[in-house]
Amino acid sequence: MPDALLSVLADLRPWPLAALARALACDESTIRAQLAELQTRGIVPLEETAAGWQIRPALDLLDAAWLARACSAAAVQVLTITDSTNSALARQSPRANGDAILAEYQSAGRGRRGRTWQSPFAGQIILSMSWHYPEPHDTAALSIALGIAAAEALRAADYPVQLKWPNDLYLHGRKLGGILLETALNSSGAHTIAGIGINLLPPPNPGQPVASLSECGTIARNPLTAALINRWREAFARHPADRPALPARWHALDTYADRAVCLHRAHDTLCGTNRGIDEQGRLLLETTDGISAYSEGETRLRPQLLSPPTQEQP
């Protein structure tokens, strides 16, 4: 991905081809090839106008000054382009509790299990937040708490978002977003960075059924982002004291509540009925052997068993 070119175009002004070549110290044919790559991938809403090449986002850009006023408890930084907001926040030192980084675009976003996370320019909420705990904490329960906080922030804005264990946001039965927690332990305690990506617009070539908030109508991007930041700060601050309340809060949002599911783990698959979570954020799966708690894997709806075709009697 030609990130240097994208950085120049990110000011949203029209750039003639010759001006882009001068700014990036390369020839026009190289610029044309990079522009073609941006257009082909569909990550950037790029147009060629009479005045030059220009990014024309469908949504408002993030307003750093407005967000700083709306989320004044800690620092909020808005980047135009970064590799990953989690990585960008990890590189900053010192960090205060609740410090947050947002980005219009990340070139190397990642999810759980090393998966990549596509982020079209200005088409998502891409947020990372830092928190320090003096003692090691239950990261699974914290991930659950942050998922609940995100879903509640979106539902307060009339988006009917639900959750899928362990940390996916769902809308209309399809994935809307996900959360990634990264924790480093040392003598001073646990340093946690949590990242979330939420589709505001449909991502190009997602590779799986996905949802976006644009399906529900207009999007007030900055107020929605501020609400998410403030809810996350509250969730971080309440953890781990809030763990007893997590199962009931999760159940109210669980898209697979009391449904037949399969839990796909690294070496096996278990099928049963989803009975929610426990205080540690573990999945409660009911099988013929009873209810057991599981801390890893991914849930999917269990395929309906097809009845064998009836045969005519002779």
From TrEMBL:
Claim: Transferase is one of the keywords in the record: no
InterPro entries associated with the record: aa-tRNA-synth_II/BPL/LPL, Biotin_CoA_COase_ligase, BPL_C, BPL_LPL_catalytic, Transcriptional_repressor_C
Root EC class: ligase
EC number: 6.3.4.15
Keyword Ligase among record annotations: yes
Cellular component, GO, one term: cytoplasm
Key words of the record: ATP-binding, Biotin, Ligase, Nucleotide-binding
Recorded superkingdom: Bacteria
SUPFAM superfamilies hit by this protein: C-terminal domain of transcriptional repressors, Class II aaRS and biotin synthetases
Entry-linked PROSITE patterns: BPL_LPL_CATALYTIC (PS51733)
Record GO terms (molecular function): ATP binding; biotin--[biotin carboxyl-carrier protein] ligase activity
Gene3D superfamilies, alphabetized: 2.30.30.100, Bira Bifunctional Protein, Domain 2
Record's catalysed reaction(s): biotin + L-lysyl-[protein] + ATP = N(6)-biotinyl-L-lysyl-[protein] + AMP + diphosphate + H(+)
Domain BPL/LPL catalytic: 62-244
Pfam families: BPL_C (PF02237), BPL_LplA_LipB (PF03099)
NCBIfam families (UniProt xref): birA_ligase
PANTHER family: BIOTIN PROTEIN LIGASE (PTHR12835), BIOTIN--PROTEIN LIGASE (PTHR12835:SF5)
Name recorded for this polypeptide: biotin--[biotin carboxyl-carrier protein] ligase
Taxonomic lineage from the root: Bacteria, Pseudomonadati, Pseudomonadota, Gammaproteobacteria, Cardiobacteriales
